């Protein structure tokens, strides 16, 4: 984990100057100060939420206290203390290969008041985040997005994909394994910690994962103020034959008119082992009085479809989920382990400058990358945008497919060699929103 605390980093002066030229003020917000509540109101409004109660605001404060909050103010407004732009960020880590993590500058809460949209406020805030992260030594920034149209212009690109899954239980007779461990309901008391403990082990093994946080797990557990479904939350753990928690499913059941065919909504299903995955999925699919099981942020091709008699009982809708932005090419490429040796000269184009350049990328038999600048006059084998490099970094997509789409180019042999080398040992997945 990065030793730098983002909360101590100064405001980006370029963004401050750009916003000042437009009559706007750029400022850091202290989560324990008076500016916190208006900041939190602005974020809720930006994501189309209602006015939060005191309890909800206090609950959010527990998370936002750990983040770098930045706001944009229009001091001529009727509510001059309520920001017209918000963003928060924090240092976290991204799993790049099983058991291997790298520092990540995570960005969230990007909102601009509808009264102030399309005046360049988001541009100033995102520029400020990227410059601050790069200056602090982060090789990667990341976020999850409401719309796929926003962040490409700042060099972000999808790096992990996830499926929303819906399963018709009447067609999904279980044909998968029957693990030897056991399932037990667990109380809501202490549930958030229990979810977090399982997830923390799962996320370290899965490329694309980032850690959750207490507030995220309180939300999943149904104990966050304002959760209208909170009382309905149930949780079941899978314990292996040694009695160790290896997986957990947290769910609610929504009423349907047909009492024998309710909807079971999976809030989280985290499995540390194939046994835990099979046992928990079997549990939800065979739950009495349930006709449909829905789960979000599952693997692109969810393994459960191999465990039921009729795979078409499982509908998986694929979406881009985590977007990464490479800020330092050599360090980003060196952050993961590779599957096959490689020797290639790669040019990366980045209109914002952070990642612009050309490098020799050499991967030896040990799977480690050594990345050094290309000297003037050296031949280049492949070219791609910083966006394309972000998309292939974890192996979630193939560079040959991006070449077919015209956003990478080069010698076919070199492109194919990159595909072999970048192939992930496990399909990358981010299983939370951040
Ligand atoms: C998305 C949002 C933050 C953009 O803020 P903004 O201040 O209006 O954006 P800017 O004026 O800085 O726009 C910068 C560029 O992005 C484009 N852009 C902004 N929002 C866009 C959107 N939703 N879709 C496509 N393009 C968008 C602008 O047209 C502009 O394009 P240009 O580079 O060609 O000039 C704002 O619309 C918002 O708060 N939306 C609701 C909350 C949300 O979805 N936030 C994102 C969370 S991941």
How are the secondary structure elements laid out?
Blueprint lengths: L12 H9 L3 E5 L6 H11 L7 H11 L3 E6 L11 E13 L2 E13 L8 H15 L4 E5 L12 E12 L13 E4 L5 H15 L8 H8 L12 E6 L5 E10 L7 E10 L2 H12 L4 E9 L15 E13 L2 H5 L8 E8 L7 E7 L5 E5 L8 E4 H7 L6 H6 L3 E3 L1 H11 L12
Parallel strand pairs: 4-5, 10-11, 13-16
Antiparallel strand pairs: 1-2, 2-3, 3-4, 5-12, 6-11, 6-12, 7-8, 8-9, 9-10, 13-14, 14-15, 16-17
CATH superfamily of the largest domain, by name, is Gcn5-related N-acetyltransferase (GNAT)
Contiguous uncertain segments of 5+ residues = none
Order of helices and strands: HEHHEEEHEEEHHEEEHEEHEEEEHHEH
Query: Can you list the ligands bound to this structure?
Result: coenzyme A
Helical run tally: 11
Shape: globular
Quote the average pLDDT. 97
- The computed structural class is alpha+beta
Assign the CATH topology of the largest domain. Answer: Aminopeptidase
Beta content comes to 25-35%
Distance N terminus to C terminus?
17 Å
- The CATH architecture of the largest domain can be named as 3-Layer(aba) Sandwich
Taking Cα atoms only, what radius of gyration do you get, to the nearest Å? Answer: 23 Å
CATH class of the largest domain equals Alpha Beta
Can you give the helix content as a percent range? 25-40%
| Number of separate structural domains | 3
Pfam family, one: SCP2_2
Family: Belongs to the acetyltransferase Eis family.
Subunit structure: Homohexamer; trimer of dimers.
GO molecular function, one term: aminoglycoside N-acetyltransferase activity
